[in-house]
């Protein structure tokens, strides 16, 4: 026998109406959504045989800019399969190692810039790391330097901020308001982002190269089952989606810096490890596997910062209309219920983490990390 999904205590007749904040509501084209905050239910929800990603709300809105890109395409559509088969191999952990030197060198440029500012100057870590993210993404994936680590902000920064914030807000507004008042705002941002993609395509065509990376896959890759390749418009979709999709990386790195600065004894341990394993020589890709404590610090930062706040899933459609059972039979939802996995709840589940708000990299080391439930490693 399943039990009701936990919810705040309501009042007679009106239920939880007073718990609702209009600024935080989600509208999914008339589809009600539920949220999951515990690792027990998340384990069920991450079963790819039962659930798939849900394209709704803000993700539908961002499709205005990038259409059927990898993370915005409906996964039962052929367009998703084509993009996935062509691009995914180039983004595997093994494939990404080929760009380590470029990533390191660009990051070193940013650090040199910071050192040159002097001790009396301040920086905005998020703004600086956003610059780094766009520069690294554009160079490693598409083979072009933007030189945006300093100087005026690249137009992509403002365009991505507008496009993503509008994608969050548009589902909460009446359609007529979006069209009359905010329509040009989104269109201008989308046009700027697509111009970024088109310029990278033009650069590739003007400067042919043997470099085998994501751009080569976008231009030359074919879907094995049909032989179809991507059109220029589809290539732009994928190009633009990568900076948007990787925008959580600066959030994670800035959070890690914050947590380390708040606990200097932990930062000292991380620095000691770097001094021991890397020393004064060149930082190389093979050093990464040796920096276990630093890796644990990043994992713990990811747990507490939840740089990506969650993800949306839905049951895979079937002819079976019975309720979906979660958490080993504890809960049930409708067969077509969209759900949001809230990582802030999952990653701070006191049933898994003692003193869950404390920053303790040791929980992410060795056997301690290996023994964590799969649901809290997302």
UniProtKB/TrEMBL annotation:
This protein's UniProt keywords: Heme, Iron, Metal-binding
Family matches, as PANTHER family: CYTOCHROME P450, P450, PUTATIVE (EUROFUNG)-RELATED
Annotated protein name in UniProt: Cytochrome P450-like protein
Annotated region (Disordered), positions in chain: 25-44
MF (Gene Ontology): heme binding; iron ion binding; monooxygenase activity; oxidoreductase activity, acting on paired donors, with incorporation or reduction of molecular oxygen
Organism encoding this protein: Coniochaeta hoffmannii
Pfam families (alphabetical): p450
Amino acid composition bias (Low complexity), ranges on this chain: 26-44
